[in-house]
Amino acid sequence: MIKAIKIRLKPSKSQEILMFKSTGVARFAYNWGLVKWEEMSKQGLKPSQLKIKKEFNNTVKTKEKYKWLYEVSGQVTMKAFDDLNTAYKNFFKGKSKKPRFKSKKKSKKSFYVRYDAVKFKDGKVNIEKIGKVEYKTNYKIPKLKKYNNPRCCFDGKYWCLTLGFEQDENQVELNKDLSIGIDLGVKELAVVNCVDKPFKNINKTAKVKKLKKRLDRLQRKISKKYKMNKQGNCFIKTNNIIKLEKQIKLIHRKLANIRNNHIHQVTAKIIKLKPYRVVMEDLNISGMMKNKHLSKSIQEQKFYEFIRQMKYKCEFNKIKFVKADRFYPSSKRCSCCGNVKKDLKLSDRKYKCDECKMIMDRDKNASINLSKYKLIV
User: Fold this and answer.
1) How many CA atoms lie within 13 A of 287 on its CB side?
2) Coil vs helix vs strand at 223
3) Rounded-to-integer distance, Cα 217 and Cα 207, Å
């Protein structure tokens, strides 16, 4: 399977300027291609990646006002059209929403790096048109002629280079008697049938609460400053507003890193139990986000990211990953006698069986039922 690693870059000021230019060119090419794709489809023509590439090279690149496109690698624009083509394919397959324009403020700052130009030597990595950039990492980087989908990205504080390479699956002796059921929740992150204590919700810790409190305070402060500097329908950005915005971005970055790190630690602990299979519910996360009372808590728990990590870690360790049917009554079914309690409410945190009189924590009962789930082919 393909394994990805992230390497922190330490570019000079001139190199960083070229990196920001590359992200701008990638965004410009993607948005330009999106406009042309929509125009072709409205005219009844069949849009394609090759047609858009040819038109871009023949019309845009030949004009003098677009000379700044030549300051960066040509692979940046070509890969932007590949990304657009992939986005439309996923949309037609029903995997994602319709492609939208990339905003300068909100879109992720990243660009493609030519794979055959990436070379590591003497603590520096060569990137086309940018030069030799210093890097820092704890990984052992394999010296290959070709890396899979190398990209440079900016997370608001540091520049990183991500690249993939093929690696053999991990050979682990699995416990053929151990089937793990994982029940995700809002109160606790995950309840596992064979683990006594549930994995905690990181958002309820003192560290995260303190950061969220500081974030709320800064957001109120910046809101007041915007109102003070309002002229008609326009908001004027002062230097103090720009400083506050940078602080807010860094707090958001720190919170995201804490949550991602916690999910990696939890999924690693589950994999180290060496089960022969892992069963999880097929959650309708987009539908759950429509609940105005729980949407923020669900968003902070990062259910989709948890499932994604469990899936690839199971694949890497040759563990069978099973998604239980969305309508499987894991919470309503008694894990002892199999009786289904149809009138169970969300507020009922203890499961009390009417048949065998068993009393158990609702989430623990659900995880045991998931571990017993049989895949119907």
Assistant:
1) 4
2) helix
3) 16
- Two tokens, residue 339: 């009786």
Q: How far is CA 214 from CA 154, 229, 244, 252, in A?
A: 24, 23, 12, 11
- Residue 98: exposure state from Cβ atoms within 10 A (0-12, 13-18, ≥19): exposed
Give the phi and the psi of residue 119 in degrees, each rounded to 5.
-140, 135
Q: What is the dihedral of CA 99, 105, 106, 112, to 10 degrees?
A: 70
| Three-class SS state of 355 | coil
Residue 373's identity, in one-letter code, is Y
The domain locations on the chain are: 1-167, 175-324
Digit-coded pLDDT (tens) for 213-223: 999 999 999 99
CA 92 to CA 89: how far, in whole Å? Answer: 5
Q: At what angle do helices 13-42 and 74-93 cross, to 10 degrees?
A: 40
Q: Residue 122: what are its φ and ψ, rounded to 5°?
A: 55, 45
Q: Is the dihedral of CA 155, 159, 163, 168 positive or negative?
A: negative
Query: Tens of pLDDT along 266-307?
Result: 999 999 999 999 999 988 888 888 888 889 999 999 999 999
> Between the CA of residue 371 and those of 151, 321, 336, 356, 359, what are the distances in Å?
39, 11, 13, 20, 19
Structural tokens at position 297: 């808590």
Is residue 376's pLDDT more than 70?
no
Nearest one of 189, 181, 211 to 301, comparing CA atoms:
189
Measured distance CA(188)–CA(151) in Å, rounded: 35
